[in-house]
Specification:
- With 113 residues, the protein is mostly helical.
- Helix content is 47%, strand content 9%.
- The chain folds into 2 domains: 39 residues, no CATH class; 66 residues, no CATH class.
- The protein has 2 helices and 4 strands; from the N terminus they run ββββαα.
């Protein structure tokens, strides 16, 4: 409960060192004389991190497209080692969808920050 001083409510918090109640605007505790750190809470993600995830997602999607093209039978390039068919059936689409999900996640992070 905040006390009334001349009709104005004063917000209070507890000192992290001595535990006594002090006004929230003070930076030093009047009881124990300790400096109280000013902590700012952030959203946890920055716009730069969202951009990095978006670019990485696009890179994964591009890599999946290149792998699919060169491992499919329509490519004029022939691999010197045989590539199993499950690469084009399962792994390449999985890489593409993972990249699309990461790109969308990067956009969401970028929009939130």
């Amino acid at each position: 409960m905040s006390p009334l001083v001349q009709g104005v409510h004063i917000e209070e918090r507890n000192c992290p060192f001595c535990g006594k109640s002090i006004p929230s605007k003070l930076y030093n505790c009047p009881h124990c004389r300790e400096a109280i750190p000013n902590v700012k809470v952030s959203s946890g993600f920055s716009s730069a991190e969202g951009s990095k995830k978006f670019q990485r997602g696009l890179l994964y999607m591009l890599m999946a497209g290149v792998i699919y093209y060169f491992t499919s039978s329509s490519s004029p390039w022939q691999s010197p080692i045989p590539i199993p068919s499950f690469v084009n059936q399962y792994l390449t689409p999985l890489l593409f969808l993972g990249g699309a999900g990461m790109a969308l996640y990067g956009l969401v992070i970028k929009m939130r920050s």
